[in-house]
Every structure is written in C-alpha cells, then in structure tokens.
Amino acid sequence: MTSRLLLLAAVLLPGQLFADADALATKPDDWFRSDEGHRTLATVLSWQSPQGSWPKNKDTAAKPYTGDREKLEGTFDNKATTGELRLLAHAFQATKDATYRDAFLKGYDHILEAQYPNGGWPQYFPPGKGYPRHITFNDGSMVRLLDFLRDSQGYDFLDAPRKQKATDAFDRGIACILKCQITIAGKLTVWCAQHDEVTFEPAKARAYELPSLSGGESAGILRFLMTLEKPSPEIIRAVEAGVAWFDSAKITGIRFERTNGGRIVEDPSAKPLWARFYDLETGKPFFCDRDGIKKATLAEIGEERRSGYAWYVTSGESVATDFKKWPHH
C-alpha cells in the first residue's frame, strides 16, 4: 500500500484535492461494517455514473448526489474512478455485501472496455470529440489505471477471465507507453501529457497545453515503469533515456511562486525545478496563455494563467531518487 500511495503522490499535480476515496480505501475492515462506513459507501455509490465511472473534482464520499444520475459524467481524469473502485473492493471483502461487488465490477468492466486496442486510454469513455479522445497521461490518468489493474490481481473475488483480461490490458498499456515515448534526432526523451490515439504523436489539449515534452506527467510514467518486475530491455532503455532527459532538463537557481500573480524568484539555494512544458524542437521550457501562443518566459503570459497553473514541478527529484534504487541499470 505504501508504494502505491507514493506513486499516486508522484503523478498528481497541485490543486487536486479529492483524495477521499483513496484514503478511505485504507480504513480497517471494522469501519466498512460500521454505520459510518455504510453511510459513506452509499454516498459513493450515489455518484457512480450509468457507465460505471465517477466524475472528477467531486468529493464523492462527503455528500450524496441528488441530481439526475443519467446525467452524471464519469472520467478517469483528475484521479477519478480508481479510488472509488479500490474503496468498493475493500468494502466487499470486508462485508461480503454483493451491492459493493456489483458496483465494482461495473466500473472494472468499464475500464477494460474503454481501453483502445493499441493499449491507451482516453480521458473518459465513450470519449466524444476533441482532446479527450487522446491517450491521456495528463494528471497521471493512464498510470493510475495500469496501477489499479495490476493491484486488482490481488482481489480474490475477481474471476479468472477478468483477471486475464486485466493482464492483457496491462501488457498492452505498457506497450503503448513505449510507443508514445518521444524520439528527437534519434534519441529517446520523455512523453507529452497526451498523445494522438492513432499515430501516438504528441498532441494538443487545451489552448495553453500544446504538444511538448512533459516535465510533470513524464515523471509519473518513469516512476511507474521502475515498479515493473522483470522489465524488458525495451523498458530498461526507456527508463534510462527518460532519466537522462530529466537530468539534462533540470532548472536551478530559481523558485516559482504562484502567489503575487505568479512569478519567478532567483534563489541559488532552491531545489531543482522542471518546467511543465518543453519545446519539441528547441528542448527549452515554454509557457502559453489561452491564446495558444508560445512564450519563452512566464512573465510574458497573463496573470490569470501565471498563477492559475502548475508551470513548474519538482517531480524530477523523485525520478532521480527512484533510479538510484532501481536494480536494473
């Protein structure tokens, strides 16, 4: 459990506040059999969409959903769905109440159905039009799904055919990650936050989220790959290349402050930072406002985006730390 929570911390970005289902999944068995547990679980179930997923940016364990459930829009983005499913799995194991098992299986089957044949997942399923169709690494979405499917092999109530489907889905997902790793001038680097679901090429999301080398999502992908048992030579190569990129892309001597309108402060003692976006051609950090035009410095974009987005991350430190402990290099 500890390693899984550490991995989740690595791939989540600032501002994601709804970790309640994940946290509740670690409660002792007695809690699930208590009145409080029953009330909480009923609340979580009220938020499950007709497809089997849960909406993002909602505290699904705090207050029951009272609207039209047919209009609930579930997603895999922003930490949604996998936490609720972990909670329900523990609930069934602790109580043997079939209600929790059935709701879990609905969500579980939805995840398996949502995977593209090439191994990627969209933001939600069915994905509709636009960037939600892309293979989504953003906010750790695909890494969380793979981590969940791997952990689900330990659920004794899952039947063998589902476990085999999950194993196959996991293997396809790893293959997809390797296909998406960006090569520049013949050299493997890292990943974009989202990739085209057909060509695997780096893709655009929102107006200020242009195709790029990601200093945020790539850290979670690398740390996840380093948790794989018996990694193939291709996985080892991918990790080594990604770690080398992080070392070359680190930024020293500055601090990023999201307060005061978002600004850069010179600080020789500051820990290394990594930009959220690096240009695919120059390899340099860039910044972007809602007009979709690249800027070389943070000061060139408006205050709303300067302070309203995680332009810098520290996750490269955890990549280096994990790599030092990784026995396969």
TrEMBL record:
Broadest EC class assigned to this enzyme: lyase
Transferase among keywords: no
Pfam family membership, one: Pec_lyase
Assigned EC number: 4.2.2.2
Domain of life: Bacteria
GO MF term list: pectate lyase activity
Region described as Disordered: spans on this chain: 50-71
Entry keywords, A to Z: Lyase, Signal
InterPro entries: Pectate_lyase
Compositional bias segments (type: Basic and acidic residues): 56-71
Keyword Signal set for record: yes
Signal peptide stretch: 1-19
Protein name stated in the entry: Pectate lyase
Organism: Luteolibacter soli
This protein's encoding gene: pelA
